[in-house]
């Protein structure tokens, strides 16, 4: 891409950022323009309204939802989850990243009615993190089994899981049993490391 074209795109992004900031500044906490991308940290109460406005506005023109990335801070902050929606404007070829914070207990309004591609992404967020979305038409597990307990990408989920699934030849079928961590093969020598060792 030529330098002149990059300058034109960056001028358009700066204009769009000023437009958004002037009209919608009371709806977001913080904002940033970095590497031809606009980052907006939005209050969760105004998320649906702001998204609806930015899609139907001819200047913003959010055409496509590319991704939904979730960060689990595991209760380090006031809000546990940070949801980052990545949108693409096909006219000017730049991205807007809208970020909202959630505590994991309250539901978030589904945007599947505005962006149909979010249907799959919200189902994946529910399956992996346990984040509920209001007014979602088909919120069910998508990557794990229907009898799966818990949400595997949460930081409080154990690495080995709660159940073990395997094929048993004697039963000629699949068995699901609770995980048992046997310690038979370990030898514990509770001697003081600074004292005398057994030989």
Please describe the topology of this protein.
Blueprint lengths: L2 H22 L3 E7 L2 E6 L4 H10 L7 E9 L8 E9 L4 E9 L5 E2 L8 H12 L3 E2 L28 E6 L4 E6 L21
Parallel strand pairs: 2-5, 6-7
Antiparallel strand pairs: 1-2, 3-4, 4-5, 8-9
How do the SSEs run, as a string of H and E?
A: HEEHEEEEHEEE
Terminal CA distance reads 72 Å
Percent of sequence in beta strands: 25-35%
Number of discrete domains: 1
Description:
The strands form three sheets. A five-stranded mixed β-sheet has the order 1-2-5-4-3, covered by helices on one side. It has a two-stranded parallel ribbon with strand order 6-7. The protein has a single domain, classed as NADH:ubiquinone oxidoreductase Nqo5 subunit (Beta Polymerase, domain 2). It is elongated. It has three helices and nine strands. The mean pLDDT is 82. The relative contact order is 0.10. It is 22% helix and 28% strand. With 199 residues, the chain is an alpha/beta fold. It has helices spanning 3-24, 47-56, 118-129; strands at 28-34, 37-42, 64-72, 81-89, 94-102, 108-109, 133-134, 163-168, 173-178. The chain starts with a helix and ends in a 21-residue tail after the last strand.
Question: Can you give me a brief rundown of this structure?
Answer:
This protein is of the alpha/beta class. The protein has a single domain, classed as NADH:ubiquinone oxidoreductase Nqo5 subunit (Beta Polymerase, domain 2, 2-Layer Sandwich), CATH 3.30.460.80.
């Amino acid at each position: 891409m030529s330098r002149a074209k990059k300058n034109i795109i960056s001028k358009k992004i700066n204009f769009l950022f000023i437009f958004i900031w002037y009209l919608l500044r009371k709806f977001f906490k913080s904002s940033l323009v970095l590497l031809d991308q606009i980052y907006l940290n939005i209050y969760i109460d105004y998320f649906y309204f702001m998204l609806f406005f930015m899609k139907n506005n001819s200047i913003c023109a959010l055409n496509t939802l590319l991704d939904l990335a979730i960060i689990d801070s595991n209760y380090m902050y006031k809000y546990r989850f940070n949801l980052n929606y990545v949108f693409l404007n096909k006219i000017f070829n730049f991205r807007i990243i809208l970020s909202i914070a959630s505590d994991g207990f309250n539901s978030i309004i589904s945007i599947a009615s505005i962006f149909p591609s979010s249907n799959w992404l919200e189902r994946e967020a529910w399956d992996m993190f346990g984040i509920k979305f209001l007014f979602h038409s088909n919120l069910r597990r998508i990557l794990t089994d229907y009898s799966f307990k818990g949400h595997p990408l949460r930081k409080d989920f154990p690495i080995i899981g709660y159940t073990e699934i395997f094929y048993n030849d004697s039963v000629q079928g699949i068995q699901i049993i609770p995980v048992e961590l046997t310690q038979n093969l370990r030898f514990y020598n509770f001697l003081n490391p600074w004292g005398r060792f057994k030989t």
